[in-house]
Amino acid sequence: MTDTSTPILEVRDLSVDYVVRRRQVPAVRHVGFTLNRGEGYALLGGSGAGKSTVALACLGYLPGNATVTGGQILLRGRDIAHATRQAMQPLWGADLSIVPQDPHAALNPARRVGDQVADVLRARGETDPRAITARVQALFEMVRLRDPARVAESYPHHLSGGMKQRICIARALAVEPALLVLDEPTTALDVTTQAAILDTIADIRDRLGVALLFITHDLRVVTTLCRRVGIMRGGEMVEQGDADDLLHRPQHPFTRQLVDAVSLMGRDDGARVAAPAVAPLLTVAGLRKTFSLGGLFRARRKVKAIDDVSFTVTPGRTLAIVGESGSGKSTVARCVMGLLAPDGGRIALGGDDLAATSAGRNRRLRRQLAIVFQNPDSSLNPRHTVRRIISRALPGQRAAGDQVERLLAAVHLDPSLAERLPRELSGGQKQRVAIARAFAADPRLVVLDEATSSLDLTVQVAVLELLKSLQAARGTAYLFISHDMHVVRRLADDVAVMQHGRFCEIGPVDQVFARPAHPYTRALLASAEGRMADEAGAVIPDTVELS
Amino acid sequence: MGGASVTDVSARPPARVPILLRIAQARGGTAGLILIGFWLTVFLLSLAWTPHDPFAFSLTQKLVAPSADFWLGTDRYGRDVLSRIMAGCREVMLISAGGTALALALGLIVGVTAGFYGRLYDEGMMRLMDILMAFPSLLLALLVVGVLGPGYFNVILVVGAVFAPRIARVARGAVLEVRQKEFVEAALARGDSAGNVMLVEILPNIVGPLGVEVGVRFAYAIFLSASLGFLGLGVQPPSPDWGLMVNEGRELVDVAPWISLAPACAIATLVVGVNLLSEACRRIWAGEA
Predict the structure, then answer these.
(1) Is residue A232 a contact partner of residue A51, using CB atoms and an 8 Å limit?
(2) What are the chain B neighbours of A258 within 8 Å (beta carbons)?
(3) Cβ contact (<8 Å) for B4 and A412?
């Protein structure tokens, strides 16, 4: 229908400003790229780099306080940089589609998913119910959903995160778009699911010839999908070009940093000491926890979150518990912390048995345990200054002398940040404050519940390094809960693989990674390695040491 | 740590705009500020000075229409209406503030503990609040006054009793949201006492929704005390209560309309002002302005 030589999308010298409290704040400066039919283009950058703003501008869906101050966005040769929403409306149904970051929020929980995809078809004028059903099924098959007929009849809460994201992709494809915008489509999913989704998207790109604009902060997912990559930082495109070139020969320092982050994440330190023969610090034996779902008027359903789990953590070492979401690994962490009372089993710290809830434990024992949560936004009280947050975790809830300053220095934060509120800090800074708080009472064991998962890759690496140096300096033991094999490999000495509330394998990291005994461990490793293999080619072997 | 210095780009704290300026920028905020500012001035002025004695009868100057000497005229006993409005302002402010403060204290105790402890205690408390809220507020107020008898302090008690369940409900809702945040779990895990967690970790985070509710309740408290006064069940004559004054002027409304009109306008402007102001604060809290 259109001349194939015209690019689907051409962005020329685009600049976008936001108006915040009556002040113009530049968000995007002079960004330009071209996207052809059947091609993938990745916009890569940390949070706040302006990549989402570019994507929204391409969709003609900028928020009300944003204005395009310069440049052009040519969609099949037509400039839509200043198009109104009314003018864009017909295009959304035909040329443009978006796959959201969080599939859990993108589907209406009260309606069957089949109907939600059918809505899109009806909006395009399809009226024959049988044709609609057939098309929905075909779409579901295209995104590799097993048993499409049953899935179509399901509500979102029946489906896993990965399945929901497939539904969102199916819904986006229902309009047969020329351009598909993917806004961090795999960030909210775990590793195994990520790999499968990326594979599906690549397959669809090849079969339908749809152009992909891929927004991400994770370099690892780019290479499978996109030939060309643009690196954004602070609203500017610092470097762009062929994905392979960029990864092998990064020019800009920021790109190099991104590449290094990946290589460090995948690199094995090698020099791992064998477990010393000392008494375990934390002993967990036969831990069980069953949740009962349902309410007054619905049949109760018992779910075994943890089923007979036993492990030990040695002083100064790290045990990682890996598994997909819902495997029960966070429940273990919460039981150890006394935030959740287990149904059975024994938890002991040093020689002392721990009571089921933290209220039943004495002060001395409680002080030896601390926790760092996944999301620093909800784990720091937004109304307290950094100083107050840390002081309250100190014995007596009061800081003596320069204790707060010393803790901040220990997590590599400027002591002048002490008077700030959490919202005045970046994500990485916030997580460092959470770590400083955990170390305030000088604990013997720190539970890290997905402590790096919500951070950008480069920040993740820095925080992992910090955790390692704190461990080396203070001899603290870590119980590290994670779904990310790369991070586990980087931080842990021992690893336990968890599935459906049970440990299917436990052992030293080297052994588990080199010779996985359980099929599930192999599956986890394979999906992580699948991405690693792409990176392996991309990574210069002798990357600089991060020190 | 090379990585840290490069990646942790220092987030600059947002410039702090004075709160009054932000309220003035919100929709209706300026009007609210002007009205409340006016009544606060009157309140402060009335503590020190009124043009005439609000209680002094004058047989020669009954029902004088508004004039240079009596700006808002006089009532049937020759008392200056403006002076009585000013003196009444003092009473209405103290009664409403006292009643709202009482309601806030009761509501917080019930609401915060219910939201924090949850389970059966929460269920029991909330059903009790539901029962109290099932009565229309004026009816409940009449009931309490019927038992306690009319009077200055009883009106404060009534306002407190009537509004406590509503504040409890709002407080509980806000606590439920904060309760599941991880900073609360972190505090409980390190063994802070329940009271300490509620006061220091949770309370500061519910100030926003609670403040708005308190503003709304304050406005209704003005209404409620005026209604009780009008019905003769609140503050007793010769107190210059606005509701009472409206009632006193009721029979003379075709001869001397200013006697009722002035306190009625006073009630209306004060209530509207409080409402505008609390709405503006709500918008700011919700990030809409």
Answers:
(1) yes
(2) none
(3) yes
How many angstroms from the chain centroid is the CA of residue A408? 26
pLDDT value of residue A112: 86
- Provide the strand spans (E) within A36-121: 40-44, 66-75, 78-79, 96-99
Supply the Cα-derived Rg of chain A in whole angstroms: 25
What's the pTM?
0.64
- For residue A504, give the nearest of A309, A343, A314, A346 by alpha carbon: A309
Q: Amino acid identity of A131?
A: A
User: What's the rounded mean pLDDT across residues B196-205?
Assistant: 90
Q: What pLDDT, on a 0 to 100 scale, did the predictor assign at position A531? A: 53
Q: What is the pLDDT of residue B268?
A: 93
CA distance A285 to A547: 39
Q: Containing H/E element for A345?
A: strand A344-349
Task: Judge whether A429 is closer than 8 Å to chain B, CB to CB.
Answer: yes
**Chain B interface disruption, residue of A330, A358, A383, most B CBs within 10 A:** A383
Residue B62 burial (CB count, 10 A):
14
Cis before A26? omega within 30: no
With CB atoms and an 8 Å threshold, state whether B182 touches A392: no
Per-residue model confidence as pLDDT tens digits over B126-168: 999 999 899 888 888 888 888 888 888 889 999 999 999 999 9
8 Å CB contact between B193 and A392: no
For residue A241, pLDDT over 60 is answered with yes
AA identity, residue A339: L
Task: Return the pLDDT at A360.
Answer: 79
How does residue B273 score in pLDDT terms, banded at 50, 70 and 90? very high
Q: Tell me the shortest Cα–Cα distance from A304 to chain B, in angstroms.
A: 22
Distance of CA A72 to the CA centre of its chain: 32
Whether ipTM exceeds 0.85 = no
Which residue do the tokens 């916030």 mark? A430
